[in-house]
Design brief:
mainly alpha, 3 helices, elongated
């Protein structure tokens, strides 16, 4: 985390949520791209009995499977990371404002509050 001791809290929260979104998009893109490429079939032939054998086209590949998985799951991972980091930063700003000091316990309490909120909602990252 960057040092935001002089920035107002709304800017810090938005900055951290944006950084979390970018981190989730990059990490989720890499993860789900590799996962989609590994789990995609090499060749998918649809309606093969309707197309003559010499005119059949391969309708799928590892690259297409990777692109499909990346488009399907990477935005969800990015949104989850943005929500998590935004909530963590909001708790950190609130605790820093309440305690009027910036030490390691702010991070501990904000992490506990974030984990409690996400668990109470039934969603753990």
């Amino acid at each position: 985390m960057a040092d935001h001791s002089r920035d107002p809290c709304p800017y810090v929260i938005l900055n951290e949520a944006g950084a979390g979104f970018v981190t989730g998009a990059i990490g989720g893109g890499i993860w789900h791209g590799i996962k989609g490429a590994r789990h995609a079939p090499k060749v998918i032939v649809i309606f093969c009995h309707l197309v003559p054998e010499n005119k059949r086209l391969d309708q799928g590949s590892r690259l297409e499977g990777a692109a499909y998985a990346l488009k399907a799951r990477s935005p969800a991972v990015a949104g989850n990371f943005a929500a998590w980091t935004g909530l963590l930063s909001a708790f950190n700003c609130a605790i820093t404002g309440y305690r009027q000091k910036n030490d390691i316990w702010n991070g501990v309490f904000s992490g506990a509050g974030t984990g409690g909120c996400l668990s109470a909602r039934g969603w753990t990252p």
